[in-house]
Specification:
2 copies of one chain form a homodimer. Chain A is 69% helix and 0% strand. Chain A is an all-alpha fold. The longest helix of chain A has 23 residues, at 130-152. At the A-B interface, helix 4, helix 7, helix 8, helix 11 and helix 13 of A face helix 4, helix 7, helix 8, helix 11 and helix 13 of B. Chain A binds a DNA duplex (19 and 19 nucleotides) through helix 3. Chains A, B: InterPro entries: DNA-bd_HTH_TetR-type_CS (IPR023772), Homeodomain-like_sf (IPR009057), HTH-type_TetR-like_transc_reg (IPR050109), HTH_TetR (IPR001647), Repressor_TetR_C (IPR004111), Tet_transcr_reg_TetR (IPR003012), Tet_transcr_reg_TetR-rel_C_sf (IPR036271).
DNA sequence: ACCTGAACACCGTTCAAGT
DNA sequence: ACCTGAACACCGTTCAAGT
């Protein structure tokens, strides 16, 4: 199982191996020993190329963002801003536990810089002040990361235990409906509205509100 | 150090102990053995009261929310919505790593239900449809959790290593300013705007945009 | 310069055994 | 019913030793 010793260990190949382990075992199952085994080495060997596990997670964060693509220029800043949000979400959903990996990690990889540069360019061209453009960009990434983080984690112990998402949602609805109506009239009345909408709908709702709020700045 | 054996172990006292360990050691340092030691028992004893560590984290999530208070009724739904967001952020910032604990955990504790019930009541009274009220409530919690999550995690390896937040931010600004201006004209030009604003300002910006976007629905 | 073996100080969880 | 001791299968990290 050991790699041919002529092929030296590199940070790139450690990152690729870590990505495969992440996909297979999830973030909780990602250990130095498993990453080492994936490249046919001992755990201790990794420490020659990498300071610690945290640095492997940094590499992983960069790898997740690596295939980000810029949305086409339509001339409509609002549509482009929405599209940026949708693509970022899709990118995070594409890799297992990606939102958790990226969560509070600031990457200054070339891909991230290119995306940020392009985003700021479009917002300034649309007429936003420098300060507002910078804040609007930060707002988008905070919203998307927060949203996907909730989306990727099981929404209840039941779902974690293996029940399907739909089943878990129905159970949540039952909780709301079973509440005493005199104490919780709104929860009982809105049980369906709280539980039914799927994640795409929820995401889009927030994204549209944010875009509308930004548009109001251009007044 | 052992507790008097007449005082039995309960889930409540386990939760309180876990909260103290969290405050002292952070989420990464929270172990079954340390929680057990905090109540003067063996780690194995906890498993009589609790299914596993995950369930302790659930208790912790409830405990974090436990002292949530409802904002005063001003008759202005927008101001009340903003205040809800600010208070939720303050609550998460008050306990160490609280955002990470709460992150993808759905709590149905009585405090959470009371808050949700009250929030929905105000939004409906303001004229939002049932569906929009439900979505607006979800949006707020997603935004606040995502924001604080980024806020509570070190924004760079430098800060994790002990440098102050201001110092780390200045270093980030230097990164932007040092980029080649022909490749990254916007990043270079907006370096200050990207780095200078403090977290309160960033949070408020997003909150105001979201409230404005919601207001547009009432049109 | 790069990698390994062995060790250290931890984990979460289980389970027979005690009271 | 409730708690313990001891064990199992893991962790991240260090470090002398090998090549």
């Amino acid at each position: 199982m050991a790699q041919t010793p002529s092929r030296a260990l590199t940070r790139e190949c450690i990152a690729a191996a870590a990505l495969r382990v992440l996909e297979r075992e999830g973030l909780a199952g990602l250990s130095m020993r498993k990453v080492a085994a994936e490249v046919g080495a001992q755990a201790a060997s990794l420490y020659w190329h990498v300071r610690n596990k945290e640095e492997i997670l940094d590499l992983l964060g960069d790898a997740v963002i690596a295939d980000a693509e810029l949305p086409p220029r339509t001339g409509d800043w609002r549509e482009e801003y929405l599209e940026y949000g949708r693509r970022y979400r899709a990118l995070l959903l594409a890799k297992r536990d990606a939102a958790k990996v990226v969560a509070g990690r600031l990457s200054t990889g070339p891909r991230v810089l290119a995306v940020l540069e392009d985003q700021l360019d479009r917002l300034r061209a649309a007429g936003f002040t420098d300060a507002d453009a910078a804040m609007a960009s930060y707002l988008l990434s905070a919203y998307v990361q927060g949203f996907v983080l909730q989306e990727q984690s099981p929404l209840s112990a039941a779902e974690a235990a293996g029940a399907g998402r739909g089943q878990a949602a129905r159970a949540a609805g039952d909780v709301f409906r079973a509440l005493p109506a005199e104490d919780y009239p709104n929860l009982v009345a809105l049980a369906d509205d709280l539980v039914d909408p799927d994640m795409d709908t929820r995401f889009e709702f927030g994204l549209q509100r944010i875009a509308d709020g930004l548009a109001a700045l251009l007044g």
